[in-house]
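Re: Re: ligand-bound prediction request (bumping)

Still looking for help on this. To restate: I need the protein modeled with adenosine-5'-triphosphate bound, output as structure tokens. Inputs repeated here so nobody has to scroll up.
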Amino acid sequence: MSSILSIQSITKFYGPIRALHKVSFDVPPGAVFGVLGPNGSGKTTLLGIVMDVLKASEGSYFWFGERPSEKHRQQIGTLLETPNFYHYLSGERNLQIAAAIKGRGEGDIPRVLEMVKLADRKDSKFNTYSLGMKQRLAIASCLLGNPSVLVFDEPTNGLDPVGIAQIRQLIRDLSKEGKTIILASHLLDEVEKVCDHVAILQKGQLLMAGNVGEVLTNEDFIELGVEDGGMERLRAVLSGLSGIRQLKEQEGHLQLYLENGGISLAEVNRYCFQQGVVLNHLQLRKKSLESKFMELTK
Ligand code: ATP
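Reply:
Sorry for the wait, this slipped through. Here it is.
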């Protein structure tokens, strides 16, 4: 089996609204896979489809290399929205009820409580839990029966920084156990911190998918400036230089994006001078991931 989940050209309409358009990507085994996109980009719709809560208008998907079936869903723990726990029952009692409903994991409750660090509060009523504890109990419910794949929609939404850090650590721990984790998030920071693979959605279309390091790499670029009226000549000169991937004009400067192992500032300066162009501005700049994400999804 080459992928845990294979999404193939999925399109979804809600009446006239197109929420997804021909989205395709594969989730490799053992990945922590982020589905990243701004609000309304189609993340929840996509997770709803692969969890069989929603029907795709077109396209197909395969779990474990096979057509989806109930057998597969038993191997997947899902957190798409906050489950309805009983407020006046304890965390442990709520998990017993969840296990009975799911038909799996009755004997697994001490293990999952330990995993989400709620064992010492298992007898407390749900309504005495903090928001972070409620979310951890929801994740504990997904872990019942030890599924090999976990699907989480915005697992840290609404939590404070401590709660967010606890959930992220839990995701890392689950990944170390060998689980495949698919999580939707609108937070670049979240995906960068916990995911090794990412698919970026914008207005229902897939912009990019792959290894986080490749998709969201920090890019260096060189910024150059010349006296007024010299920009066209500079652009023409630079287009003859090898090792350049892209040239962009921004706020009166030219930005030079380099191929891997590009060229140094000194080399660019020398080359321009030899071609009769005198630079009045030359600077190496780092492009932040934030600005790359903004640019991708603008
Ligand atoms: P968010 O992070 O805000 O939840 P999302 O990326 O998960 O956003 P979706 O909730 O999947 O995006 O929504 C994708 C698009 O589909 C949006 O334009 C949304 O308004 C629309 N949409 C979602 N659910 C429905 C529905 N039941 N009926 C009509 N339109 C819907």
